[in-house]
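Researcher: I'm comparing several assemblies side by side, and this is the next one on my list. It has 516 residues spread over two chains. Same procedure as the others: predict the full complex and return the structure.
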Amino acid sequence: MEKPKLISEDGVRVDGRRLDELRPIKMEVGVLDKSDGSAYVEFGKTKVFAAVFGPREVHPKHLALPERAILNCRYHMTSFSVEDRKPLGMTRREVELSKVIREALESIVFLEEFPRTSIDIYVEVIQADGGTRTTGLTAASLALADAGIPMADMIAAVAVGKVEGHLVLDVCDIEDKYGEADLPVAMAPRLNSIVLLQLNGRLSREEFQKAMALAREGISKIYQMQREALKRKYSSVEEG
Amino acid sequence: MPMQPKKSLTVRIMQDKIYRLLQQGKRLDGRRPDEVRPVRIETGLVEKADGSALVSMGGTKILVGIKAEVGTPYPDRPKEGSFTVNAELLPLASTTFEPGPPDERGIELARVVDRSLREGGALDLEKLCIIPGEKVYILFIDIYVLDYDGNYYDPSLLAAVAALATAKIPRYEVGEDGKVEKTEERFSLQLTAIPTTITIGIIKELLLVDPQIEEENVLDVSLVVGTDEKGNIVSIQKNSPGLIPIGLMDRITELAYEKTEELRRKLIESAGIPLP
């Protein structure tokens, strides 16, 4: 397939966004009943559920740690979430992303408050259109908050891309596919810290600095939306 | 500095010790904070492989072997050959590695090396085409961690590049009957770039490179950064839990450029790789 033109002369992207514009974002907290905390997040056509179980007893028991909780995370995509059906089970990509998402969450959850337990987080991508790990992490962080698990901060995340020489905020799938770089970033904004950082692609030093600044701007907006989503659920509970 | 996740007492004691050394510009093994361990590169020691390299970085030893096969190209890249990277953390390398299929650490290692090679532009994949849309060379780049004393990332990429640079790939040709057959001839892969990575560890506000095992176990956080010789960053992977203070990113980038360039020079000199 020929590479389509992704950015117009006047800096408009394939889906009509400006270079530094996020996709339409939807967040809802407490959407799955059986879990201890859950969230649904949409970044454009990227749609993700996250659910948290725990702190609960560790299975098998010998994996329990005396001084802190263990945190398990599974990032998974449904078979129909992508263009060509994804085979069932975990791909190598999903195994890697489960690890980096878990490590991002381990950076902020107060695990030492729940020794000998496990906190299990499931991220289920029901439709993938770019930025699934960052959307998943944004949802997982909301689900942890919904479960009432104490954290040093919330995590907000977004992917910055380089497309036709331009840095763009919140890459969608076609931009990722034909673009020159994909930089998923997750931050704990209140702690001024990065909790997930990967680069797949090529960026100059200057581009990398600009991309990180662009990610930070997007993240502060996403963080604000997360707080509002939590308030929506918990203020309506009080009133009801 | 942000509050890092709480660590166990034994970790905190060791971290304090290493941090106090770093404040004086020192390390447990006598290195400076920005000093990589001695690197030794030996190529071609596995004759049955089409390319191989044994790299040691201090006490960490990595063996990479390459086997070439002929297969069909990806439908969206009909004129390109391909490569896949696998990594195994062998049980003989460490008591923390267990037999069995690669776990998440092995998968992460393989994928970071893969991305560094791919985005670093090390191979011209169009040169690995035999018949467009039908037959191409597929390179299997397999990484084995033989001895693990911390940081298996950087020596794995060094070994992969050294093995690729010195590989002699059996040439396949289209015969008169149109079939693709193996010939007696072999050819070299002309590398189009030499990507290298450096692993950077952080304790509080201080940085160190190429952590050995005692350091790795107590770092606040670590990340791997890859560059090419043209001044691009070609891969990044935060590969452990913990917080990277945003304010450290410029120092991290600066250090990464300096150290990956140093490793690139070492690789070119000791493996006798021609400059792309």
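Model: For your comparison table: The CA atoms of residues 3 and 56 of chain B lie 35 Å apart.
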